[in-house]
Specification:
mainly alpha, Pectate Lyase C-like, elongated, 10 helices, 45% helix
Length: 378
């Protein structure tokens, strides 16, 4: 009983340290050597003392080995202990990371291949816009619509520039040209905001040589194109064909259209201030409620053009053909009509009905003014 109590208190006081455990084991060996209750302490015979107890001997060896093992474990460093405890987990983690890296690398290579195939397809479609037979051009234009989707933004500008180049070289007005023009219209609407923000040109202070490359529509065939509600300030339509185009509510501030063809187009509520459209064609065009302040139409052909409620202050129609034009409720203050053709009959009657009799502040040839004054008196 005394031996068990001694072992218990020694173990509790040791706080489970390696040294303490060794001490416990030492005391255990010592206590095992104490005589048991009722055991004689008298010296044993010489024969007995020379014969060791085999059980106690091997037990002592076992305890010594346990002490050595505890010391060995305590002597091992923290890294070794970590690897001993978490080695299998680390090995598994490295294996998982290796598989993940292989998958990532494989996916990246597949993505590169897919992007290259997509780029090759796009380049082929651009080339086919000029291919023969011409039906291939129409097919290429339709296929380009898939590259004008929102998720294909990286192709938008290049597609627009390629289509802009193509509409400048169109010759016929058949169904192939119509298809290409419609796809071009789609590309323009996708790119117009970026075009405007990229340049950020103050057209009110820029020189006449400033223009936007992306809005250079000169020589383009844009038959029946819909450009309504767009800001095309500074655009150049010189020699372009915009027959029956829809330009309603379009901003064309300082736009140019030298010798352009706008026959039967609609400009209702457009803003064309400071525009320059000399020698252009505007037959049967609707200019209702258009802002034309300080614009230039010298030598332009405007038969049956409708200018009702238009703002024409400071605009120039010298040498223009205005046969059959209508100016009811138009503002004509400081508008120039010198040498204009077709100012007679019904045309003069519409001028007399201009807003606030602003015709009185307009500039006419002397004979036309006399006729207006005479008509007013009747």
């Amino acid at each position: 009983m005394l031996r068990q109590l001694t072992l218990f208190f020694l173990f509790a006081a040791s706080s489970y340290s390696t040294t303490a455990l060794a001490q416990v084991l030492h005391w255990k060996i010592f206590l095992n050597e104490l005589p048991q209750k009722g055991q004689s302490t008298a010296p044993a015979t010489q024969q007995t003392s020379k014969t060791p107890d085999s059980t106690a001997y091997y037990q002592t060896l076992k305890i010594k080995e346990e002490i050595k093992e505890l010391k060995r474990k305590n002597a091992v460093g923290p890294v070794a202990r970590f690897m001993e405890s978490f080695g299998p987990f680390v090995t598994a983690l490295v294996a998982v990371l290796g598989v993940a890296f292989s998958i990532f690398k494989f996916t990246g290579e597949k993505r590169l291949e897919s992007n290259q195939r997509e780029r090759d397809k796009f380049d082929k479609l651009i080339a086919n816009l000029y291919a023969e037979p011409r039906i291939n051009q129409s097919a290429a234009a339709v296929s380009l619509l898939s590259f004008l989707e929102p998720e294909k933004k990286k192709f938008h500008r290049q597609a627009y520039l390629a289509l802009l180049s193509r509409v400048k070289s169109l010759e016929d007005k058949d169904h192939v040209a119509k298809t290409i023009i419609k796809v071009f219209e789609r590309a323009l609407r996708l790119n117009i905001d970026e075009i405007r923000s990229a340049y950020s040109i103050d057209l009110g202070t820029s020189s006449e040589s400033d223009y936007l490359l992306e809005l250079d529509f000169s020589n383009a065939v844009l038959h029946r194109i819909d450009l309504s509600n767009l800001d095309l300030s500074g655009a150049d339509f010189a020699f372009a064909d915009l027959t029956q185009a829809n330009l309603q509510n379009t901003t064309l501030y300082r736009a140019k259209g030298y010798q352009a063809n706008f026959n039967r187009a609609s400009f209702s509520k457009a803003k064309m201030n400071e525009g320059r459209f000399q020698e252009a064609k505007f037959a049967k065009v609707h200019f209702n409620e258009v802002e034309f302040k300080n614009s230039f139409f010298q030598k332009s052909i405007l038969p049956e053009a409708k200018f009702q409620q238009a703002q024409l202050q400071g605009s120039h129609f010298e040498d223009a053909n205005l046969k059959g034009a209508a100016f009811q409720q138009a503002m004509l203050t400081e508008t120039f009509f010198k040498r204009a053709q077709g100012l007679q009959g019904d045309v003069l009657n519409t001028i007399l009905r201009s807003k606030e009799q602003s015709w009185k502040k307009a500039h006419f040839d002397s004979d036309i003014r006399e006729e207006l004054e005479g008509s007013k008196g009747q």
